[in-house]
Write the structure tokens for this entry.
Amino acid sequence: MLTVGAMTDGRKRAHVGEYLRVRQPDIQASILSRVRVIGKGPREPDPAYSSSVRAAINAGVSYGIRALEEPQERLSTPPPAIVDQVKLAERSEVSLADVMRSYLAGYFQFNEWVIRECERSRTLESRELTDLLGRLSDCLDRVTETVTAEHRDSAQLRPRHSLQGDARSVRRMLAGSEQGQADLGYALNGYWHTGIVASGPDACSSIRSAVRTVDCQVLLTPQEDQLVWAWLGTREPGRLAVGPALLAGDWPAETAVAIGEPGHGLEGWRLTHRQACAALGQAERRPGLATPYGSVAVAVTLSKDETLRTFLQQHFLDVLKGTGDSIDDETTELLDCYLQTGCNASAAAAQLGMNRRTVSKRLRSIEEKLGHSIGTNYTELSLALTLHRQSRAECQIGNK
């Protein structure tokens, strides 16, 4: 076994690193405790923010230990958890000064652990300890540069509650004007946009809360009658897979939320807003859940075209319901399954767990009522079934 004096510099650093890794949970807990005492977080308690702080501390401690163990030229950029935490801090309106105060507290706390271990084990001479602390100082420099840059860049895309002047600019832009983009504080050209329209007493605060952890620019413009328009924008279309996060969001029971499909540039910004507005009527039938335009596009079209609704009702739904008030559930289920399987009776029978002959017999009966084969009017029958479901949903809402 090597004595301390016989160890190489690399082995001595590794010895300190090994000890710090063993004590890493304690180190992280002490830093978190210190940060909670001196750091300032969001104005309101936020579990997501607290989680990001813990993740940044854990990643930062690992980063510091690697800096002690590895050759100095291999010192990498700060870990992603730190970048993510800084962005969330800015979106949570935590100032750069408060963010840096927390990181400095963590830095000094970590230094204390390093110094205590060196004094306890007598592993390093004074010169070697100075070198070790210099490595940690280099880490701090890199973290400071990263934190400052990320906080500044995120601030340029800060979600904003638009003033009345902004609201007027938004309306002008939606109406076709290309003037006034600078008044929006939100870049249009070269960006992908997702429009959101929400209504309800908590609509504005709900959207603000939902987009706080979304890494993109946000434009928020409250309207009259508890209505809010919002857009998310990013240069990378993949980033707008924020849809699932918004769809799964915990929305208040009285808030209706409609989301448009991503669109590019100024025209895409206008289109995604129109889609969200069109879907809002469907969203108001199921408040508390976000409704994407893509899931209700057909229903939206049907709700606006009385001529088409009348045609589908008279030529399909009235014919199929017979003497009843509406089509029976068994017929609806059979037709849905038959159409979804590409008009394949065998596949529909297997999916429904029915005998193929029984399915074929019932399908022939339906075609006799319609006066033509189901495949002949595949699209129209699909729309008729959508209209049927929509009408039933409206009746259920009316009965509540």
Remarks:
- Residues 1-6, 159-165 have pLDDT under 50 and may be disordered.
- DSSP finds 17 helices and seven strands in the chain.
- The chain has three domains: 4-156, 160-294, 305-399.
